[in-house]
Amino acid sequence: MKTSKLSIRLLWYITPLVILPLLFLGGFTLTNVTNSTQKQADLIMSRFVEQQQQKVFNYIDSFHSTAKLLSTSPVLSDFLSNDIHADGSYTRRLGALMDVFASYSEAYPDIISINLVSASGKSDAYYSNNLTTAPQSYPFFKQVLQSNLRQQQFMVQNSDGTTNLFFVQRVQSVDYYLKRPQQLGFIVLQVEPSILNTSILEAPYNNTLNLLLTNDGQILFSSDYSLRGQYITEHELEQVHNLADVGTLSTIELSSIDKIERMIFAVQMSGGYYFVSTIPKGVLYQSGKAISLITGLIVIISVITLPILIFVVVRNLLLNPIELLGAASHRVGDGDLSVNLPAHTNDEVGVLFNDFNHMINQIRHYQEQLEEYKHHLEDKVESRTKALEAMNSQLELAIAQAEQANQLKSRFLANMSHEIRTPLTAIMGFTEQLLINDKVVNDKQHLNTILRNSKHLLELINNILDLSKIEAEKLAVEQAPLNVVQLVHDIESIIEPLAREKQLAFSIHYELPLPRTIYSDMTRLKQILINIASNAVKFTEQGKVSICVHYLQSKQQLEFVVKDTGIGMSEHQIERIFKPFEQADATTTRRFGGTGLGLCISKNLAQLLGGDVTLKSEIGIGSRFAITVDCHINEPKQSLELLTEKAQLIPEKDPFLSFATSSFDANILVAEDNPDNQLLIKLLLQTWGLEPDMANNGAQAVEMALVNDYQLIIMDMQMPVMGGLEATKMLRHAAYDGPIIALTANVMNHDIDTYIEAGCDKALAKPIDKDALENVLVSYLNLEKDNQNKWDSLLKSEKFQQINDNYVANLPSYLQKVNSLKASNDAEALRSVAHSLKGSAGCFNFDDIYHSAALLEENLLSNDQTQRPTLIINLINAIEQTIAKSKETA
């Protein structure tokens, strides 16, 4: 195969990229091998010499200790205590001393002889394990006499090259009168240097030469026996001495021994001797040279072979597939679509081959489709024409639906305009008549008309708001205990007057058993039932309307069935009736009015409550609405209690939730910025015997609540200057613990949660529901009344009176303390006393002391000293008056 240009370029790039790092690595390896070999040898030699030095030192030290111990022997002292020839005990004492020498020789086999030498050099007692006679003299004895050392050792080389080791120990006695030592003689130990011979023969490397030199260069011991007794030159001895001082491995040529360059490590020992360990430099670096040679060979082979191997691998893995792909692409460009690349590995090149084959297949497939399109063009044109016609039909249907939706919107706006304007016209007209005409006769009837139209207008607005919340999925329902009988009774009280007004029969049917309590949203369920039941009355001209209540035990649902004998509906009308802004037909709006929102809202609310609203109807016969809601009686801590008798179907009213059964003397604050709402709330409270204070904004409410003692606060949430939310938080931070009732038009669950978290106890919706306001006021005022009664009882108790008397008895001490602090002008201490008096006097209702102490404390916290003397005098007067009053009452 012809070599491509890419292959040549790749080879040019690969070769230097591989060779340069390998050369650098080889040079680095060779350098490190040499350095590491020398460092390793230095470490091994230094450790070896140090070990031998320590071994020889321990050996010599042990015999020094032996000589010292022998010099203190009692037998030796007894032998030297008297003149050895003065009496006849000489032989006995000498025998005893020989026994001691023999025991030491047995204990230490290296001891050759033990000699007791007098100060004149004469041998007084001599023991030898080889039974030799005592030497006449020692070559080192003159040196011993000249030295002041008590212990000395000497190495003396024999004529045969062996060396003996001698240890000399002075033997002295103490003059107990003059306290001066007396020279009695010397103990001379001759030792066979076995340890030295062994240490010299040991070697860390082969061809190692170990020497023990004297300070004049004589070789006493050597691993080469033939060198013993020889001398090295003074220059070589000086080099050895310098190496011993440095303590490192260095290169020296010992010409007096051989002509070989050696690596030498030397150390100086006690007595002026040198321990020298040498190894030929060539031997030491022989292994390093072999490693360097092998490393160089590996580098050369790698430099030659690696680029070739990399090139071969890259060519097989990459270049050959690229050339194959290029050839295939060229054939495809020439129009040959029969190309198919062979299956490759699962790597990226294999994926590229598969994608190329897939592309060719897709091109072939598209060409086949193109041919097919050419052959069936007329069929496709015809089918496309039919599709366009179908699309036009759908477009026309969509246009018609859009027009219908537009008409529905216009109709809804017209209905809403009519529905809103009708009650507004009545409200505005009758209100204008009442304002202009002072002689209106039926003013109560006019007011009832205004109220009825206002409620109707409120219902319209609520329906629109509910629908918008449902569509935005923002409407939340709750699960609270709900009395079924009370609920039905409330519905009956609203629907029955409407039916009676149209002369229709109205009835309630209970199918027992029924649950006494279910868990649902009473407001929303009541809204559904009132909406459907009022529709039943509205669309029924004659006959009856009934509500049937029964419990679906299998589904655990409560069902309300509302039947009427009204106009009824067709199947087509039933399909439209639950859609927003739609009624049965246009005539329905003209005859009965309405917005078409009620049933849509009711169905959505029923589904939110876990049920539904279904309808069955026939034209001219009537309609049957079935409303189901989930009872939620299987929740934790909720039990099912069934009503099984008709006597249990009488609604109960809590007597404590009515002003008719309660009387309160309560101080109430109302925070409301709207003057009309102020008048309305005040009028409601006055009808219940309550006279409230009014605040125009939250700031005024906070100020008034902190000054006056209010049992309950009604707080509007939207006010200028400061809103109700901020005011409530400030009151709770100021330790106001009375009930705060939120009054707001925003009654979504998350809004109510916000008010409760801020510190409100309850939330009431606008416009104000009289019954809801009455229930809330009575429940909280009853609680406040109970708490006040308990507090009054506590104030009248004997225990409180005893505590009160004790406090009064301590007032003179407070008075004395205030007078003394007034004289010393200690402001900080006086402020502490005023603070204590304020807190305690307020608890025991001594208002004069409380207010005087509070004013003084406030003044002491500021820098104003002009009023301070007057305030101190006022506090003193208040304490004195309280003490005087207590004495009068006593």
Indicate the radius of gyration in whole angstroms: 62 Å
Mean pLDDT: 77
First-last Cα distance: 132 Å
Query: Going across the major beta sheet, what is the strand order?
Result: 2-1-5-4-3
Q: What structural class do helix, strand and pairing data support?
A: alpha+beta
Strand content: 15-25%
Unreliable spans? 654-661, 783-795
Shape label: elongated
Number of strands: 24
Q: What about the largest sheet?
A: 5 strands, antiparallel
Q: Total helix count?
A: 25
Which range best describes the helical content: under 10%, 10-25%, 25-40%, 40-55%, 55-70% or over 70%? 55-70%
Question: Could you walk me through the main structural features you see in this protein, from its secondary elements to its overall organization?
Answer:
This is ATP-binding protein. It comes from Pseudoalteromonas undina. Keywords: ATP-binding, Nucleotide-binding. The protein is an alpha+beta fold. The protein is built from 25 helices and 24 strands. The strands form 6 sheets. It has a 5-stranded antiparallel beta sheet with strand order 2-1-5-4-3, with helices on one face. The longest helix has 67 residues, at 5-71.
